[in-house]
Every structure is written in structure tokens, then in C-alpha cells.
Design a protein that fits this description.
heterodimer; A: seven-stranded mixed sheet; B: five-stranded antiparallel sheet
Chain lengths: 114, 114
């Protein structure tokens, strides 16, 4: 069974902390994504990566960075957490090729910044 | 730039009634279209996708959607709602470029009344 695993389901962090959200996929996918989900706004793309050590900004990259040192792992970093980053974070992966554009999602990490 | 509009943030139907969730998209190139479902406290699961070929697409759990290029629509339907269909549904579009990133609509919460 294909799987995208996010390291934490729930996190509570303090304002100003550096926060790491980890995501691992076991499908040998080239593409990986980090989305943020907020009520009424759907999913918004923060960053994506189409290869190891490659990264591209999505629609809302401010306040975030990413790291992809290995193909299967894609990390989202909040350099200095703020309360407006309280949200659900979803990681996804997909293969290259137009016939395989389906994205597989992890269970999500609900982050609360206090 | 691509965009997705889902009409109706909340839809309520009776058990056994027709489910219709509306999705309109904007894309400058032939789109790839997706419907995902999210159950409470879970990640997103693919219901169905349109890439090329037949415009009526059948998915899991009895759902189907029809791609209508002239109307730029991809509405999701199910003939008879079941209580287990209560969830949030997201329509998404991809142009197959930029790592196959998806652009999501704001989501529609489906409520099924007994």
C-alpha cells in the first residue's frame, strides 16, 4: 500500500520557535509538496520539489523554508513560528508524467502556535 | 494561472438523494482535473480524475464526474447519498507542468441527513 507519512499528527509550539515538519514517502516519487489547509481557503501550496535538493516556491512561501536531501524525505521548516501559522499542514507526493499526475497525501499535521 | 471555484461551501442532502457538488476551473492549457475527499482528521483521498479520453469519469464509492470543456466545469455527482459520504470534498486542477502541482478549490462540506 502506497504511503506518505508525516512525523506528527499534532504539534504545539511557542511563538518564535523553529519548527520542523517531516514527510516521508515510500513510492519513489520525484515530486513532493507542502500544502497548508485553512477553513474556507482550501489547500494552498507552500513549496514543492521535483528532485533532490531542488525546491520551488508555491503561492504562500513567506515564513517557511524546505529541505530535500533525500528523494523520499521532504521537510518543512518554520524559521520562527508565529500564531498566524497555526494551521493544518499536508504533505503530498506524485510521480512525473502526465498519465500519473495523481498526488498522494499524508494524514496531516495540525500545528498550533501559542 | 489556474484557479478552481467550488460553488457552495456547505451542501446538505437527505440520505438516498442525489449528490451534486459543483466545480468550475480556469486553465490556459488542457487541464487535468481531480476530486479528492477528506474525512475528519484525515488526509485527502483521491475520488476520481480526468486526464484525457472519456469525459465521464467514474470513481470510488459510486461517485462520478463529467468534464465539460465548453462550460469549464467538472461537477461531482452520486445518485444516492449515504451517511458515510459526509466529508469535505475538494476539486483540483493541474496543467501537468511545474512538478504536476495541484491548485485546489476552497472545498465543499457535504452533510447527509437521515
Amino acid at each position: 500500500d502506497v504511503k506518505v507519512t508525516q512525523s506528527s499528527r499534532y504539534l504545539v509550539k511557542r511563538t518564535g520557535e523553529k519548527v520542523f515538519l517531516e514527510c516521508v514517502q515510500d513510492m519513489d516519487h520525484e515530486n513532493m509538496f507542502w500544502y497548508r489547509q485553512d477553513p474556507g481557503l482550501g489547500l494552498r501550496l507552500i513549496y514543492f520539489s521535483y528532485d533532490v535538493k531542488m525546491k520551488e516556491k508555491g503561492d504562500i512561501p513567506e515564513g517557511y523554508s524546505v529541505s530535500r536531501e533525500k528523494k523520499e524525505r521532504f521537510s518543512l521548516i518554520l524559521e520562527s513560528a508565529s500564531t498566524n501559522q497555526t494551521s493544518m499542514y499536508l504533505c503530498a507526493s506524485s510521480a512525473v508524467g502526465k498519465a500519473n499526475t495523481e498526488a498522494f497525501f499524508g494524514q496531516g499535521t495540525r500545528l498550533t502556535v501559542v | 494561472a489556474q484557479s478552481v471555484t467550488q460553488l457552495g461551501s456547505h451542501v446538505s442532502v437527505s440520505e438516498g438523494a442525489l449528490v451534486l457538488l459543483r466545480c468550475n476551473y480556469s486553465s490556459s492549457v488542457p487541464p487535468y482535473l481531480f476530486w479528492y475527499v477528506q474525512y475528519p482528521n484525515q488526509g485527502l483521498q483521491l475520488l476520481l480524475k480526468y486526464t484525457t479520453g472519456a469525459t465521464l469519469v467514474k470513481g470510488i464509492n459510486g461517485f462520478e464526474a463529467e468534464f465539460k470543456k465548453s462550460e469549464t466545469s467538472f461537477h461531482l455527482t452520486k445518485p444516492s447519498a449515504h451517511m458515510s459520504d459526509a466529508a469535505e470534498y475538494f476539486c483540483a486542477v493541474s496543467d501537468g507542468l511545474d512538478g504536476n502541482k495541484l491548485v485546489f478549490g476552497a472545498g465543499t462540506i457535504l452533510r447527509v441527513k437521515s
